[in-house]
From TrEMBL:
The lineage of its organism: Eukaryota, Fungi, Fungi incertae sedis, Mucoromycota, Mucoromycotina. S-adenosyl-L-methionine binds at C166, A167, A168, P169, G170, G171, K172, E190, D220, D237. It catalyses: a cytidine in rRNA + S-adenosyl-L-methionine = a 5-methylcytidine in rRNA + S-adenosyl-L-homocysteine + H(+). InterPro entries: MeTrfase_RsmB-F_NOP2_cat, MeTrfase_RsmB-F_NOP2_dom, RCMT, SAM-dependent_MTases_sf. PANTHER family: 5-METHYLCYTOSINE RRNA METHYLTRANSFERASE NSUN4, NCL1 YEAST -RELATED NOL1/NOP2/FMU SUN DOMAIN-CONTAINING. It comes from Circinella minor. GO terms for biological process: rRNA methylation. This is NOL1/NOP2/Sun domain family member 4.
Length: 367
C-alpha cells in the first residue's frame, strides 16, 4: 500500500481522536447536571438560613454577624486546679503569648494574643494539646470563654450541690469543679451512652482519682422529676441549633430548616421545666445555648415564666463581654473579638410548685 493510503488513515485516526476529546461522555454530563442541582439545593438552604436570621437581626447586623460566625472558633484555656501548678509553670514559656481573662472570669483562663498579618487579617492560632502532669492529671481544658462565663453566672459556692443536666462534652462540668470545695457535689447527666462514656474519660483525665464528689447519670433530662428541690444550682446547657457549628460542617448544615429551631425550642422548654423542678427554693438555674435564635433563647425562658408550674424570677446582671437580651445575656462573635455564640439566662426559683403532688408536666400546646 502506498504512502498516500497510510497518510489518509493517519488523518482519519487523528480526526477521531480529536472528536473524542471534544465530545464529553453522557455520564460526565449527567454528573455535571447533578452537581449543579446539588449546588442549587445548597444555595437554597443557605439563602433560607440567611433570610431567617436576617429577619431577626436586621440586614446590617446580620452581615457582620454571619461573617464572624464563618471565622474559626476562638478558644481559651482553663487551667485545671487539680493538676500540678509547678509542671504547668514550667510549660508556660513553651506556650504562645497568653492573655489572662481575669476581667470577666474568676478562675485562671488565658486566651491567645491577637496577631494581625500584613493584610490586616487576624492570624489563626491554636493552643497546643493539653498535657498530663507528673501525677497523670491534665493541665488545661480548651473551650470558648463564653462557656466559662456561663458557669460564672451560677455563682457556685464551695459547698453547693450542683446538677449539670446535659453535661457532654464536659467543659462546663470541669469549670464547675474548679469552684467546688471538699464538701460540694456535682451530678452530671448525659443520655447518650457514647457521650457519657467520653464524659467519664474527661473526668478521669481532669479530676483526682476516685473523686466521690461527682456522680454520672444517664437519664432523659426532660423527665428529671425524681429529685425535687435537691440542688442549690442547676446548669442546663441545652441541645440547640448551634448555627456556628453548622456553618463549618456542610453535611450538618444541609439538615437545617426553620423547623429545626422550633423542634429544639420545644425540647428545651421541657428540659428547663425539669431543671427548675430540681432546684431548691431560692436556688439558681442557668439556662444556656450556643444558638443565635431567640426562639431557642429568650422565648423559651418567656414560656417557662408564663406556663411553668414552678415560680421563677429572672436575675439580671451585666457582664464584661456580650449584650443584654430581654431575659438574659448573649455573647456574639462580631462584638466580642470572636467569642461565642453563647446565650444564658439566670433564673431563681421563688416558691413551691403550683401542683406539688404532680411531678409530671403536661404536654404543652405551644403558641
Amino acid at each position: 500500500m502506498g504512502e498516500g493510503g497510510s497518510d489518509r488513515r493517519a488523518e482519519r485516526l487523528a480526526r477521531k481522536i480529536e472528536a473524542s476529546k471534544s465530545k464529553k461522555p453522557a455520564k460526565s454530563k449527567a454528573k455535571e447536571k447533578a452537581a449543579v442541582r446539588e449546588q442549587e439545593r445548597r444555595d437554597a438552604i443557605f439563602n433560607a438560613f440567611s433570610n431567617f436570621y436576617e429577619q431577626e437581626y436586621g440586614h446590617e447586623r446580620w452581615q457582620t454577624l454571619i461573617e464572624a460566625l464563618k471565622k474559626p472558633v476562638r478558644h481559651c484555656i482553663m487551667v485545671n486546679k487539680y493538676s500540678n501548678t509547678d509542671d504547668f509553670k514550667e510549660r508556660l514559656p513553651m506556650l504562645p503569648e497568653l492573655v489572662p481573662l481575669s476581667s470577666f472570669v474568676s478562675i485562671p483562663c488565658f486566651a491567645l494574643a491577637n496577631i494581625e498579618k500584613e493584610d490586616g487579617v487576624q492570624e489563626e492560632r491554636r493552643f497546643p494539646p493539653p498535657q498530663k502532669d507528673r501525677f497523670g492529671i491534665t493541665d488545661y481544658y480548651i473551650l470558648d470563654a463564653g462557656s466559662v462565663l456561663a458557669t460564672e453566672a451560677l455563682d457556685i459556692q464551695p459547698d453547693d450541690r450542683v446538677l449539670d443536666l446535659c453535661a457532654a462534652p464536659g467543659g462546663k462540668s470541669i469549670s464547675i469543679m474548679q469552684r467546688l470545695g471538699e464538701y460540694g457535689s456535682l451530678t452530671v447527666n448525659e443520655l447518650s451512652p457514647d457521650r457519657r462514656r467520653r464524659l467519664r474519660q474527661v473526668f478521669d483525665g481532669y479530676l483526682p482519682p476516685k473523686d466521690e464528689r461527682i456522680t454520672v447519670m444517664g437519664k432523659d433530662g426532660t423527665k428529671w422529676y425524681s429529685e425535687p428541690e435537691q440542688y442549690d444550682k442547676v446548669l442546663l446547657d441545652a441541645p440547640c441549633s448551634s448555627e456556628r457549628h453548622l456553618l463549618h460542617d456542610d453535611k450538618e448544615f444541609e439538615q437545617w430548616s426553620p423547623k429545626r429551631t422550633v423542634y429544639n425550642s420545644e425540647r428545651q422548654l421541657k428540659l428547663l421545666k425539669a431543671a427548675v423542678h430540681s432546684v431548691c427554693v431560692g436556688g439558681l438555674v442557668v439556662y444556656g445555648t450556643c444558638s443565635i435564635s431567640s426562639a431557642e433563647n429568650d422565648k423559651v425562658v418567656s414560656k417557662m415564666i408564663r406556663k411553668g408550674k414552678v415560680p421563677v424570677e429572672v436575675v439580671k446582671k451585666t457582664w464584661p463581654i456580650g449584650e443584654r437580651t430581654k431575659y438574659g445575656w448573649i455573647i456574639l462573635p462580631d462584638r466580642t473579638e470572636g467569642w461565642g455564640p453563647l446565650y444564658f439566662s439566670i433564673l431563681r426559683r421563688t416558691g413551691v410548685s403550683k401542683q406539688d403532688d404532680n411531678h409530671k408536666e403536661e404536654e404543652d400546646q405551644e403558641d
